Amino acid sequence: MKTNANRSFYMIPYYLWIALFVIAPIALIVYYSLFNISGDFTFANYQNFFSSVYFRMTLSSFWYAFLITLISIIIAYPTAYWLTKTKHKQLWLLLIIIPSWINLLLKTYAFIGIFGLYGPANKLIEAVGLSKQQILFTDFSFIFVAVYIFIPFMILPIFNALDKLNPALVDASRDLGASSWVTFRRVIFPLTLNGVKSGIQVVFIPALSLFVITRLITGNKVITLGTAIEQQFLVTQNWGMGSTIAVFLILFMIIVMMVTGQKDKGGAINGKTK
Fold first, then answer.
1. DSSP string covering 98-145, please?
2. S-S: 157 plus which of 22, 42, 71, 198, CB 3.0-4.6 Å?
């Protein structure tokens, strides 16, 4: 009984943190979503969210988040696999993670210079005999910069999953006559799927709410849920509609986390199988 009492006492800071910085902000967002721009109580914000404008915006946000996540997986998985085979894998992993320590705004401004009409990207295009291209303010620039920013967060969980994979299972598959592709499809990928799911969570969910990149790289030509929230709060001053969009964004995040949730039913632990 005393042990349980002590455990409950030590959990008090955790409960306070959750109440103050998770539950309270969400409750405040839900509260503001029930008022219009004039401060009158209404459910009109929720009705407006299901209009064609916000429906298209939501589909657009999911589409861009899907593309960013898919491209990140395509690049991250072979990269993580290669890292596990290198001699100094921790050093290489550190070099990949270091750019994520740089401020997001600084990296975004750097790409404005890189993709500008007189930047290195256009100088390279001119070097191969082509005319200058408007790279900024395009879907390509937005997806490229977003993938660059999120790729370390996709590589890390996949690398951890691959690094913990019991190599005896791969050797057994090959000894039984399986090809490299069959081994990957039947052994390697299923056993590292939790790493992929973790990567999807840390990339797809933030990609839904991007707004700094959409403003600076695309000039707000790409509208996401995050961009809409920013505009409602800072431009139109309609906190009620901004809060309503934020409520649905939170719901979408919860759904994504539930879909990509990890369900361990066995696997390798410390190089041994259960």
1. GGGGS-HHHHHHHHHHHHSTTSHHHHHHHHTT------TTSHHHHHHH
2. 198
Distances (CA, A) of 266 to 113, 241, 272: 49, 45, 11
Instruction: Give the chain's radius of gyration (CA, Å).
Output: 23
Distance from C-alpha of 78 to C-alpha of 135, rounded to nearest angstrom: 27
CATH of the domain at 168: 1.10.3720.10
**DSSP secondary structure letters along 53-112:** HHHHHHHHHHHHHHHHHHHHHHHHHHHHHHHHHSTTHHHHHHHHHGGGGS-HHHHHHHHH
Determine the Cα angle at 161 with ends 159 and 162, to 5°.
Answer: 65
Find the mean pLDDT for residues 232-258. 92
Domain count, the chain: 1
